[in-house]
């Protein structure tokens, strides 16, 4: 089983998620690891993005859900899950081969990290906000290192 490591720094969330979802569904023997999830970017103005994610988080009841994550790695993973048929066997299998991390874990520091060229935020001429900023606005209390 091959492992593909993707550095999420400076990548657009939606484009990254669609590329990863497609790769998970087509390459059945590949495990995908995304590092630096807090540095993935969401295009659009800060105010609009914060408002949209707050609506997602506040949806549902406190006891029964649906629950929307606050942590950046979980937001990225949830976005990718939304692009997979996760209620079917092939979607569950694909989703189980995805791992998302904050920063870079020790085991992947020396490994070669790839990029998704179609998801680069360098092509954005307008405003954007990082997933880490959105998470902090949603109430994620980042632990001091």
| Estimated helix fraction | 25-40%
Overall form = globular
Radius of gyration: 15 Å
Uncertain segments are none
Verbal overview:
The protein has 145 residues and is an alpha/beta fold. It has a single domain (2-138), classed as Ribosomal Protein L13p, Chain: A (Alpha-Beta Complex), CATH 3.90.1180. It is built from 5 helices and 5 strands; from the N terminus they run βαββαααββα. It has helices spanning 13-26, 46-58, 72-81, 89-96, 131-138, and strands at 2-7, 30-35, 41-43, 98-100, 128-130. The strands form 2 sheets. It has a 3-stranded parallel sheet with strand order 1-2-4. Strands 3-5 form a two-stranded antiparallel sheet. It is globular.
Question: Which keywords apply here?
Answer:
37% helix, globular, two-stranded antiparallel ribbon
Write the layout of secondary structure elements.
Layout: E1 2-7, H1 13-26, E2 30-35, E3 41-43, H2 46-58, H3 72-81, H4 89-96, E4 98-100, E5 128-130, H5 131-138
Parallel strand pairs: 1-2, 2-4
Antiparallel strand pairs: 3-5
Short account of what is shown:
The protein is of the alpha/beta class. The chain is built from 5 helices and 5 strands, in the order βαββαααββα. The protein is about 35% helix and about 15% strand.
